[in-house]
Write a structure and sequence with these properties.
This is LytTR family two component transcriptional regulator. By secondary structure, the protein is α/β, with parallel strands linked by helices. The chain contains seven helices and 15 strands. The chain has two domains: about 120 residues, Rossmann fold (3-Layer(aba) Sandwich), CATH 3.40.50.2300; about 110 residues, Beta Barrel (OB fold (Dihydrolipoamide Acetyltransferase, E2P)), CATH 2.40.50. A hairpin with a 4-residue loop joins strand 9 and strand 10. The chain is elongated.
Length: about 250
């Protein structure tokens, strides 16, 4: 298996490397990579990195973005790796499983429990399509405070028109893009769905269609996206299209 270990403690990463070497099938060692921060992990997980991981072993308490925040971001990937939390803290178990983690291990990790977790991760990966997402490798060029940033399209949850610009939302943050929603819809139609005159959402991220009351538009419908707390209003004419997207 191709495994990414994410932990800010070098000793903890070393311990996991040793255990993984012990439980690897004879002649088939696991391919291991490491990251000490969420930012380092995202760089390895970006579509442009050329690396694909079967499972991420993820600590929770880390400097900068914590493991739960990183897990939210991982959910926005077109083909997210299986996620196993490895932490000294037991109080985050509920939050971890709400993020579709396949297992939750507490430190010090026992060999048998790690082996069980990898078996669960392997079963979870087997249910996922193996082909790369059609837009893997595509990026948006974002101008942000005097710098140009490459944002992988696979991380985008929605585009929303806001007066003279478009808000681009990922699980981690928002960006401003100088573009029109119609232009973005035409360019990325296979992967983004129009839900309202002012919004496009990533089809892969749509998790639920819910009844919703909007102060301006009254009672209606809204979508819930994976990895995002806010709801986005759905116009009446687009409700059928959203329901169809949920069945794909």
């Amino acid at each position: 298996m191709n495994i990414l270990i994410v932990d800010d403690e070098a000793l903890a990463r070393s311990r996991l490397r040793t255990l993984l070497a012990d439980i690897a099938p004879p002649g088939l060692p696991h391919q291991l990579s490491e990251a000490a921060t969420a930012a380092d992990a995202l760089a390895l997980l970006a579509p442009t990195s050329g690396r694909a991981f079967d499972v991420v072993l993820l600590d929770i308490h880390m400097p900068g973005q914590d493991g739960l925040g990183l897990a939210h971001t991982l959910q926005t990937l077109a083909y997210p790796p299986a996620l196993v939390f490895v932490t000294a803290h037991t109080e985050h178990a509920v939050s971890a499983f709400e993020l579709d983690a396949v297992d939750y291990l507490t430190k010090p990790v026992r060999r048998e429990r790690l082996q069980q977790a990898l078996a669960k991760a392997q079963r979870a990966s087997a249910t996922q399509p193996a082909a790369p997402a059609p837009h893997d490798g595509e990026v948006l060029l974002i101008q942000d405070r005097g710098r140009t940033e490459r944002l992988p399209l696979a991380q985008v949850l929605y585009f929303k028109a806001e007066q003279k610009y478009v808000t681009v939302r990922t699980a981690a943050r928002s960006y401003i893009l100088d573009a029109s929603l119609n232009e973005l819809e035409a360019r990325h139609a296979p992967h983004f769905l129009r839900i309202h005159r002012n919004a496009l959402v990533a089809q892969r991220a749509v998790r639920a269609l819910e009844k919703h009351y909007d102060p301006e538009e009254g009672e209606g419908w809204a979508v819930r996206l994976q990895g995002l707390g806010e709801l986005l209003a759905v116009s009446r004419r687009q409700v059928a299209a959203v329901r169809e997207a949920l069945t794909r």
